[in-house]
Amino acid sequence: MKIYNSIDEFNQIKENLSNLVYVPTMGNLHYGHAALIDTAKQFDQEVIATIYINKLQFNDKNDYLNYPKTLDKDLELLKQHGCNHLILPDDSILDNIKTIKAPSKANKLCGLNRPGHFDGVLTILNKFFSIINPSILILGKKDYQQFVLVKDFINDKNLNINTIGVETIRERNGLAYSSRNTLLSNNNKSIASMLYKVLKDIELNKDVLSNDLLNTQIKYLTSNGFELDYLAVCDTESLEQSLDICKKDLLVAIAAKLNNVRLIDNIVLTKL
């Protein structure tokens, strides 16, 4: 794996590269990221990753400062799964960066309590797109709203990038792999798996999908120590709230804090 410690270093060789499959990350990699690299390798093209903790997408300074950094472990994982190139930019990448304003659907779900978050996501990805010029982008669907917004941005800007979504990878107890899981104690990891249990219970009862069902699940989570950000059922594309499972597939998305660690998860309900 070739490592570039600056954008200038990558720019010196990028004219020799084409048809790159791009996997953006913020480091502290886990099995979910490994699945992204494995998916990227299926296209028989060279795979490039970035590790950059993007301060533009954090609206909580402490969250940014406390974001886990595990570079040595990250490098080993990327090498083991066959990543060909890795860019490790510093904050100079933000110099004179063009700010991207996310569309209105960014104000739903995670955007409700994280103003500017998706502006930061789209801004940094737009910069990386211009530097790397990938033909394929690999994103995880655990961050489903991000996946939709990035895919829409690429289509709206007519960028020649094929966006591929990868299903969520989970621990044995159902907890979605997340870089933030390292901030949880073993006991809290067990409690955190209740998020997936709630999603599966809603799926099991989708034929009686209702606000009462959601409120029951919210009470269950709050009684077990969760601070709910949202539990929402919505259209998989517009992200508008909907309970009409008879017409189309629906997204059930959840965000909650457990001991001040913010966790997200989702599941797609197939229409009846």
Write up what this structure looks like:
Helices cover 33% and strands 20% of the residues. A hairpin with a 2-residue loop joins strand 8 and strand 9. Helix 5 (117-132) crosses helix 6 and helix 8 (194-204) packs antiparallel against helix 9. It is globular and about 60 Å long. The protein is an alpha/beta fold and 272 residues long. It folds into two domains: 2-166, 3-Layer(aba) Sandwich (Rossmann fold); 179-265, Pantoate--beta-alanine Ligase, Chain: A,domain 2, CATH 3.30.1300. It contains nine helices and nine strands. The termini are far apart. The strands form two sheets. A six-stranded parallel β-sheet has the order 1-4-3-2-5-6, sandwiched between helices. It has a three-stranded antiparallel β-sheet with strand order 7-8-9, covered by helices on one side. The model has no long low-confidence stretch (mean pLDDT 96).
Total number of helices: 9
Radius of gyration: 19 Å
Intertermini distance: 47 Å
Q: What is the H/E string?
A: EHEHEHHEHEHEHHHEEE
Would you summarize the structure shown here?
With 272 residues, the chain is an alpha/beta fold.
